[in-house]
Design goal:
The chain crosses the membrane at residues 40-59, 79-101. With 102 residues, the chain is an all-alpha fold. It is 86% helix and 0% strand.
């Protein structure tokens, strides 16, 4: 590569970088646009998490019931894990709504 070709490549790179800076928007405008766009998804995500929580609760409840009827001696650990996961999956949507909407 000759010296002239290197200079042309460097000049083209500098022009591309300077054009990128000229097209950037202000930080506050970008944050407001992102907040508005994400605000529309909050209810959908919260409802999806509630459905996932219900499914996990049903499946976990059936699993605990089967272990209990099977005569498992250490069922308390499974009951606490199942209950904790149900509470977590039902409380998370509330916090998501409070964080993004409130």
């Amino acid at each position: 590569m000759s010296t002239n070709q290197k200079q042309v490549v460097v000049l083209a790179c500098l022009l591309a970088v300077s054009a990128t800076n000229a097209m950037a928007q202000g930080g506050q405008t970008a944050i407001e646009a992102a907040t508005t766009e994400l605000g529309g998804y909050v209810d959908v995500i919260a409802n999806a998490l509630m459905v996932i929580g219900a499914i996990v609760g049903l499946v976990g409840g059936i699993r605990v019931f089967q272990k209990w009827n099977g005569g498992d001696k250490d069922i308390n650990k499974d009951i606490l894990a199942w209950g904790g996961s149900c509470v977590f999956l039902l409380v998370v949507p509330i916090f998501i709504k409070a964080f993004f909407i409130g």
